[in-house]
Amino acid sequence: MSPMPAGAQINATPAELAAVKYDAAGLVVAIAQDVETKAVLMVAWMNAETLKMTLEEGRMVYWSRSRQETWRKGDTSGDRQFVREAYYDCDADALLFLVEQEGNGACHTGAYSCFFRRFGE
Asked: 57-67 pLDDT, tens per residue?
């Protein structure tokens, strides 16, 4: 793995963290977008713990619904995501992270983005 700069630690306030609305399973949708290209890389899920870890570590940490476990992006693939900016939407039920993508890309298929299939082609 080539060295990457550390991710940005985001100092969210307790009020901001408390505003996030989780679904019945305790999850909130998290979108990762490339900070440079603005391409949407992937959509995944976070719980309160993985959101806190992401903001503190500056590296994307998700909750795997299929494995029911914490998933630190890139631990097995090497395709890590480093946080540059973090947002929550007007309803506080969706998160957006601008990230620096390391490696081949974000998708488990090996593609740069999970959004490589287009309707109507």
From this structure: 999 999 999 99
